[in-house]
Amino acid sequence: MVNERDELGPNLVPDYMTSVKDGAFYGWPYSYYGQHVDERVQPQRPDLVEKAIPPDYALSSHVAPLGLAFYTVQALPEKYRGGAFVGEHGSWDRDRFNGYKVVFVPFADGRPNGKAEDVVTGFLTSDGKARGRPVGVAVDRSGALLIADDVGNTVWRVTAASPSS
């Protein structure tokens, strides 16, 4: 999980998730999201920017992903197996806040594959105030998703719905 840089606008730069490759260069501080040059950095290093590799998967801008948990058990619906839950702590520098939720990113063959799906929302009030901010996600022994919320001072536990009788 990478929290990209600020002060390039409300829709730049996407935060992202990426694999870590031995010896790879990801751009910091000379470029962002691969080879997009950050003109604010001096001196410039075009030799390094040329080597910068793009990330594997873009989230949205300024969502501040702080938690990541891969789901490998069977307590939640099957569509979650093999993918990753991401706790998005949320933006602070946008007119319209972004993040403040937990999303699920599907994986196939060990790589992100498909659009992120909102899983747990409601951390923002209708007037845009944070009543919670997901900071960490984990999976407990029973297969439930745990969400640490550092504004609500709560650990949320998400389980599958019980079958109706």
From TrEMBL:
SUPFAM superfamilies (UniProt xref): Soluble quinoprotein glucose dehydrogenase
TM spans (from-to): none
All residue ranges annotated as the Pyrroloquinoline quinone-dependent pyranose dehydrogenase beta-propeller domain in the record: 51-159
InterPro entries found in the cross-reference section: 6-blade_b-propeller_TolB-like, Beta-prop_PDH, Quinoprot_gluc/sorb_DH_b-prop
Source species, domain of life: Bacteria
UniProt-recorded name of the protein: Pyrroloquinoline quinone-dependent pyranose dehydrogenase beta-propeller domain-containing protein
Organism, as annotated: Starkeya nomas
Lineage of the organism: Bacteria, Pseudomonadati, Pseudomonadota, Alphaproteobacteria, Hyphomicrobiales
